[in-house]
Write a structure and sequence with these properties.
With about 375 residues, the protein is an alpha+beta fold. Among the domains are: about 100 residues, no CATH class; about 150 residues, Histidine kinase-like ATPase, C-terminal domain (Heat Shock Protein 90), CATH 3.30.565. It is built from eight helices and seven strands; from the N terminus they run ααααβαββαββααββ. The strands form two sheets. Strands 2-4-5-7-6 form a five-stranded mixed beta sheet. A two-stranded antiparallel ribbon has the order 1-3. It starts with a helix and ends with a strand.
Length: about 375
C-alpha cells in the first residue's frame, strides 16, 4: 500500500512538472524573443515577466488540478465507492460479482467475497441448528406430555387395582339380589330393577376399564394379518353402531403387524364406535392402512364435526369426555392407548382437512 501511495505521489509530481514545463517555457521564450527584437531594456522585460507569470502559474495550477482530479478519481475515488458498495452488500450477504476496478480493488473484493461466503455458510448452519433445537424442543414437550399422561394412567391403575376387589364383590352381590328380587316383583318393580341393574352394569364396566389401565400385557405380540381383524370388527358392529354407516375398508391383503388380536380388536372397535357416534350414526367412515418402513399406520377417518383444539389436548386423559352424562366414561381412548403401548404401538389424533377426525394406530410390522 505504501509503495502504491509513493508511486501515485511520484506520478502527480511528474505530471505537475511536465505541465508547468510545457506551458511556461514556450510562453517565456516567446516573450523574451519579442522583447529582444523590440530592443526593450531589461527592467521593462522584468516588469512584463512579473505581470504575465502569475497568469501562467494560475493556468498551470488549474490544469494540474484538473489532471490530478481525473487521475485520483480513476485510481482512488471510483475503487473506494465500489468498495463501499461491496461492504454494504456484505452487510446483507448479497455480494454481486462486479469485476471493475484495479488489482487492489480485485484483491479487496475477493477478501470480502470470501468473508461473505463464510458468513452465509455460518448463517445457514445457525438456521439449521435453530430448526434442530425447535424440533428437539417440540419432541421434548411431547415426551413431557406423554410422561404426564403415563403417570396419570399409572396412578389410576394402582387405585383401580386397590379398589377393584372391594368394589367387584359388592357389585356381584347386588346383581344376585336383583335377580332374586326380579323373580318376585311385579311389572312396575321389574322396570325399576332393570334400571338399577343397568346402572350396576355400568359401574362394573367402569371398574373393568380402570383395571385395563394398570394391567400388564396379557400375552406376547406376534405377527398377524391386519385385514381379517378389521373385517371381524366391522362385521361385529354392522348390525349395531355401523348399521347406517357407509364403511369403506382400504386395508391391503397380506399386510401383517406385530400385535395381539384381542387388544387390537378392542381398540379398533372403540374407535369405530366413537366415529359412528361423532357422525350421529350416519355418514361415511373409512378404515385404511399403509406401511412405511417397519411401521404400519391404521387410520379410522370420519366426517363428523371434528375435535376442537382445547378438547384435542385432553382426548387421552382418563375420565375426560364430551359425551352427555351416562353416555361415556371417558376411559375408552385412555385404555386404547395403554393397550397399544403394551404392544409397542401408539394412538394419536389429527384433524382432517375439510372437517372430521382421524385416529391413527401405529404399530410395528414384521421385519
Amino acid at each position: 500500500m505504501r509503495v502504491r501511495i509513493a508511486s501515485l505521489a511520484v506520478l502527480l509530481g511528474a505530471a505537475a512538472t511536465a505541465v508547468s514545463w510545457i506551458s511556461l517555457m514556450p510562453s517565456l521564450k516567446a516573450l523574451l524573443d519579442a522583447s529582444l527584437h523590440a530592443g526593450l531594456p531589461y527592467s521593462q522585460m522584468g516588469h512584463q515577466l512579473r505581470t504575465l507569470l502569475p497568469f501562467y502559474l494560475g493556468l498551470d495550477l488549474a490544469l494540474v488540478t484538473i489532471l490530478a482530479f481525473i487521475f485520483l478519481e480513476l485510481t482512488v475515488g471510483r475503487p473506494l465507492r465500489e468498495t463501499e458498495d461491496a461492504v454494504s452488500q456484505l452487510g446483507k450477504l448479497e455480494l454481486t460479482d462486479n469485476r471493475t476496478g484495479g488489482p487492489l480493488l480485485s484483491r479487496l473484493r475477493t477478501a470480502i467475497r470470501r468473508t461473505s461466503e463464510e458468513l452465509q455458510s455460518q448463517r445457514t448452519m445457525a438456521r439449521e441448528k435453530v430448526t434442530q433445537l425447535e424440533d428437539a424442543n417440540q419432541a421434548l414437550l411431547r415426551a413431557q406430555t406423554e410422561l404426564v399422561a403415563a403417570d396419570r394412567l399409572a396412578t389410576v391403575g394402582k387405585l383401580a387395582a386397590g379398589v377393584a376387589h372391594e368394589v367387584g364383590n359388592p357389585l356381584s352381590g347386588i346383581l344376585g339380589y336383583l335377580s332374586v328380587a326380579r323373580s318376585k316383583a311385579n311389572a312396575e318393580q321389574k322396570d325399576l330393577l332393570d334400571r338399577i341393574e343397568a346402572e350396576v352394569q355400568r359401574i362394573d364396566r367402569i371398574v373393568r376399564s380402570l383395571l385395563e389401565l394398570g394391567r400388564p400385557s396379557r400375552g406376547k405380540p406376534a405377527p398377524m394379518e391386519l385385514l381379517p381383524v378389521v373385517e371381524a370388527c366391522a362385521n361385529l358392529l354392522k348390525k349395531g353402531e355401523l348399521e347406517k354407516i357407509e364403511l369403506e375398508v382400504k386395508v391391503p391383503q397380506g399386510l401383517w403387524v406385530i400385535a395381539e388380536p384381542g387388544p387390537l380388536s378392542q381398540v379398533l372397535i372403540n374407535l369405530l364406535i366413537n366415529a359412528a357416534q361423532a357422525m350421529g350414526g350416519a355418514g361415511a367412515l373409512t378404515v385404511e392402512a399403509q406401511q412405511a418402513g417397519g411401521r404400519v399406520t391404521l387410520s379410522v377417518l370420519d366426517r363428523g364435526p371434528g375435535v376442537k383444539p382445547e378438547v384435542a389436548a385432553r382426548l387421552f386423559e382418563p375420565f375426560f369426555t364430551t359425551k352427555a352424562a351416562g353416555k361415556g366414561t371417558g376411559l375408552g381412548l385412555a385404555v386404547s392407548r395403554h393397550l397399544l403401548e403394551q404392544m409397542g404401538g401408539t394412538l394419536r389424533f389429527r384433524p382432517r382437512e375439510g372437517g372430521g377426525a382421524a385416529f391413527e394406530i401405529e404399530i410395528g410390522a414384521p421385519g
